[in-house]
Please model this.
Amino acid sequence: MSTFDPAAGLRPTDATLSARAYLQALWRRRDFAVAMPAETIRSRHQNTFLGNVWHLGNPLLTVGVYLIVFGGLLGADRGIDNYLLWLTVGVFTYRLTSSSVLGGSTAITSNQGLMRALKFPRALLPISVVIGEILTFGFELAAIAVVAVATGQGLSSRLLALPFVLAVHTMLNLGGAFIAARLSDGFRDMQQIIPFLFRLLQFVSGVMYPIGRYADSDHAWLHRFVVWNPIVHILEMYRWVFMAAPVDVPAALLSIGTSAAVLVFGFRFFVAAEHRYGRP
Amino acid sequence: MSEPAPVAEGHTPLSLRVSDVHIDYEVFGDRRAGLRSRFADRNASGRSLVHAVRGVSFDVTEGESVGVMGSNGSGKSTLLAAIAGVLPVTSGEILVADEPKLMGVGGALIGSASGYRNIRLGCLAIGMSADEVDERIDDLVAFTELGDAIHRPLNTYSSGMRARVYFVVATALTPRILLIDEALAVGDRHFRRKSRERIAEIIGAAGTLLMVNHSLGELANYCERGIWLEQGEIRADGPMDDVVAAYSVDD
Model:
């Protein structure tokens, strides 16, 4: 009787999970990570007359704007074959990165109620955001396919490489979302800053025009930045998939490594502050 | 009376131990310091420190039900959130036998989604698989008795209707430690009776209940032990009737 310890078997309520246990807890909730963003997407156009038509209508209208501005008014092909397709691929894939990171920046701050009500690994929230953006990207991929067919480019067996490119892209986006989530939880001002960073980054990532052309020896810093910026090369990979545009293979390999590094760093950076999320 | 209640005789294991817990948190005052002084001195940022809980200790055994009372701002809800592990303690330690489930009125799920989808998402978030949820969702929805309203967005619900949704999510997994923060106070009599039966079931299954409520009658209905918290400190801890008597005298 004297050896009985009533407190045996108790553990701290906020015990830090091992990396393995944390990942297992995340995996157990994988259905949530899809159901939550699917819910948001389902309700996105529910107040409109055309409803779900807008999922595809929105990206198609975006292409329409580019068609009018660049095709009709400016008449500029900028030395690129099928500039409309080139631009469409660039804009939508870049949007996937910027929305993932921007969404990540509000993943923690806008779900305080959920976090106070239920206990779950907080990384689930940025992951849900990124999955939601990938679902949205699905409609944009359809719009890209429409443009590819309409412009005579057509679709090829290179599409088989699309899941791989998307996987690399997702590593980068998820890592970025994790970093943005922690930064803006600690410093809300980040949510104002991040959109400007991405607007700036857009002009040096080869979204609207081939940045490589300007990154010559006269602009050594730009050249270095273009080599190291994974977005430039991920966009190139997408353009290879859809229009057989040339890919700088060493730079592409480097971007795969960079994206993986961003994911690993981002995850660790996010989880290190796990206890702080959701406090009043 | 400020001594922790003695642990029940015999070999009843603990489900919860709170030892010398302090919880401070920073809040932004309504008068924030100007930008210049904020840069000059980080402490002049207009934040102030709230000492919500100051050195609270108690043990709870399996099968015990504890009602926590105290005036507004006495630290009750803060303590419950800390036990749930959703709010970090500043010092001290909270030990639990199993993951506590917190049910509070403040916890909004997803306002724009229907009650049905909130139940589904809530169950998924606490780690049920999609198959498990599909299997049980009809029962859970039936328990709420919300009828067609279950398909309306959560933010069109009254607080009582919302409480029903929270209740089925919080109790979906028969938690071993259930923390209820005021949430049942807003339910109507019929639902309170139903939820009392469900809670009795949970306590019967070696579960533990910790409850915050302003209605002393409600507390006495659910709990055999009372803890009176005032300004973040325990003023009394013992059988519910004694603590209620002491608390009422003070009033």
Summary: Chain B has two domains: 1-100+175-251, 108-173.
